[in-house]
């Protein structure tokens, strides 16, 4: 029991609705709710993020300088990716309902939803989970320092990071019109090529009673802290 809490005070809180505390919202399917000591004043070294994602959405690369993070999957599925500072390797941990992935304090990591309607609970051993986001590192570090340190063209660096929005939280942005890389274009080309040479299914000799193509396709029209 904490000696800093007056449990007799009328202002002491023992319950809270996390649905009323949104940290970030991209759209109706992708948002993050937060619970910390600022929402529930009897919390000690515990806080959480309630995370909702649709497929291929990403909780951007980041690290928590003051807390470890336990990621629990409630529904859907996700990959929790962690940069191990000892092995210098990215480790990918797929989790499904009932499974967890643990991120030690200060380790660079991110989460990618692999199914729609993914619901994750991130639990921290701190009353408020502080965070440093990848988007903030890229946009707030002076371009001349990045260019000088890594032997880059400063103008090209500025152009490259210009679309990045600070405190992205969930990516990609809704207005993303990213130019596809050469490897992605090649992959699409290979896919089309395979589809083009795929043998057509054998049709019966009698007239096809369906007046559309086979197969039919339906036309479906303050920085450093969460606060």
Descriptive notes:
α2 (143-150) packs across α3. This protein has helices at 134-140, 143-150, 154-161, 182-196; strands at residues 22-27, 30-35, 47-53, 58-63, 69-75, 78-84, 89-95, 100-103, 109-113, 118-124, 132-133, 170-171. 17% of the residues lie in helices and 29% in strands. The protein contains 4 helices and 12 strands. The chain is globular and about 70 Å long. It starts with 21 loop residues before the first strand and ends in a 31-residue tail after the last helix.
Mean pLDDT: 86
Tell me the Rg in angstroms: 23 Å
Q: What about the largest sheet? A: 6 strands, antiparallel
SS-derived structural category: alpha+beta
Number of helices: 4
Quote the distance from N terminus to C terminus: 26 Å
Give the overall shape, derived from the CA principal axes.
Answer: globular
Q: Tell me roughly what share of residues is in helical segments.
A: 10-25%
Low-pLDDT stretches? 204-223
Instruction: Compute the number of strand runs.
Output: 12
